[in-house]
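thought: fold this chain, then report.
action: predict
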Amino acid sequence: MPGDREPDGEALRVALAAARKETVQLRAENERLRALLGLRSTDTPAQQTLLNELTSSPAVDAKSSLADRVALHRSLFRGRDDVFAVHWTSSRSGKTGYSPAVKGCWFGGNSQAKEYLPLTDDAIEQHLFGKQTIGLYPLLKDDRCWFLACDFDDRSWILDCLGFLEVC
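observation:
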């Protein structure tokens, strides 16, 4: 609306804290009602752990310290720490893609084994500053994963989403 101002950072932090508190209260109420009805809890231990992390973590915004912003990024986008991907564009063909970050140059015919670079706070900082586009390897060595991204397209996307949710 004309004349409306964007809320300042403090107002957003207060609103977020209130929403987090309300979420915790509503979840507790849902659990109480499920128990009264004899239904089992729908929250898995992993969901409860995530909820606890989300409701207890401090708000992070553009004015937060770089360390806090990197920590937030690491908490939301968790994958392998021993390797990460870098985005590249071929100067000859214009093709783009991602390849593991390695010490030295990936291309150039060097037949020696490549040394993968670990995902460091510095690499994340470069990404947050827009100096390097990086990617994660979300599947851990023990076949676990911290997050999942799904892409539903075409006219049936709502039905596909509902089917996916039911299977989950």
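thought: worth noting. The chain has two domains: 1-59, 80-168.
final: tokens above.
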